Amino acid sequence: MTRFVVRRFVTLLPVLFGVSLVAFLLIHLIPGDPAEVLAGPGAAGEDIARLRQQLGLTAPLPVQYAEWVARTSHADLGRSLLTRQPVLPELLDRFGNTLRLAVAAMIVALALGLAAGVVAAVRRGTVWDVALSLFAIAGVSVPIFWLGLLFMLWFAVTLGWVPATGMAGPATYVLPALALGLNAAALISRITRSSVLEILGRDYVRTALAKGLSARRVLWRHVLRSSAVPILTVAALQFGYLLGGAVLTETVFVWPGLGRLLVEAIQRRDFPVVQGGILLIAVTLILLNLATDILYAAADPRIRYQ
pTM, whole model, 2 decimals? Predict the structure, then answer.
């Protein structure tokens, strides 16, 4: 197992290098002199020179990249151009809020998606199957921001059951977690239905049923376990999407997360925050992929030797 984990980690290193290169070059993609653009019109020459020195733009590009990687490897992502505070603590604080929202949304997605997929497969061809298929199509098709606004109108404004915005307690997680998790639930339900239907047609499942095992026991001990790998694949991909794609949800619900911070940093041209945020999300997704591979190997030992 250790050899498998090391091999998977090594294959992810080129991805990390590519992401770090893109994050570093982000500031150099600005047309013209980045220091002049960031300083704004009418800035004095001394201010531009000071900003160029602060951003490390005076050295050749390869030297700049090497210095940036060296600082980053020591958890130094620089300072915000606006607040003058270190970037990493603010990113970690906001990322914690995004992670809490993503975990809540993933719980909603797994609970709804697995239940809907299993019921649709077991009740194949019935009205339950049709209704749950329509739910999956609607969940994939409806935009998250529109769904969030609709939930706010129904449950917060009209019914007054939960707060509409902010992050002030468990009740404030309900609407953003539902809005963010329904899309993932729809995809999980479709892959669960397909995987369960495929396993239900296998010979060993029919043999287990013929031996007198209850349908529920066969479903839990054989069918769902054999269906775990494709479901894990989709769930891991969706969790990465929830982490990296929560910008709209955080904006609609005024959630103080990393996505909202990055949007504000882009609007204010606070590039150290943007660079650090992109790198943090990329590293998280790489570690998530590694964890998914480990779960694959645990669910199906044959994968360890591929």
Answer: 0.76
